[in-house]
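Repro:
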Amino acid sequence: MRNRLSILVGTLVGMFLSACSPVSLVNAMVPRSGYAIHRDIAYGSLPRQKLDIYVPDGLKAGAPVVLFFYGGNWDSGDKGMYLALGQSLASAGIVTVVADYRLYPQVHYPDFLTDCAGAFRYVHDHISEFSGDPKRIFLAGHSAGAYNAVMLGSDPEWLQKAGSDIAQVKGVIGIAGPYDFLPLTDNNLILMFGGNEREDTQPIHYIDGPRPPMLLAAGDADTTVLPRNTIRMTAKLKSFGNSVEEKIYPGVGHIGIILSMTRMFRGKAPLRQDIIDFVTKPAN
């Protein structure tokens, strides 16, 4: 029995890493009770400007909110892939929002930031209808999505353009994100960001004063987005007196860190509990 379980877990990890239809397998094991999902809510007029909201059952008004942006190199991803993440946080009493945004090559930088800012504006304006507290909204993301979340928490321009304000962000959670990744060497990224040395595309470039509290997490075995991005961003934030928690998990890679949010792989890293603590602690 133990050998069969080991084979199953190994197969799931292998399929996840090879992107061979792993999502349906992981999501098939997600509990379907304890929360409600409000799907395909439009925050804009375009097809990919939609979001899903996970609301815990029996929730009292004023619950904390996490608005999550997924990764995928800014050219792939879908909110429907993140049922496990939505359930994981909703099971802790957190209203969880997973947003789609436009992708390359349909759009280039900074259009995906414009979308994410629009999603935040919608959540801020409407989350009380789902028992969420508009004064306790946390931005979060993994990989490219962490870039999006941290950029919104670093450069006030994007939320201002959406009719919101960076002061409305209670905190930011960046998971294995690229925040200081110049020079670009990938041709698609160079086209996407309009050059290989544009400092104005880097979240770290905008830290020049007070910013929302941040939780920045990475795995020390991540070779896709090097953990030095997290370390440098943490140092820059601290240099301006900002509140930031840095979590570097030993032996965890780029996919393993987000897999750790699911029940099956929770032992890989304490990310879920670190997020819950960050979102729910009274000092926030």
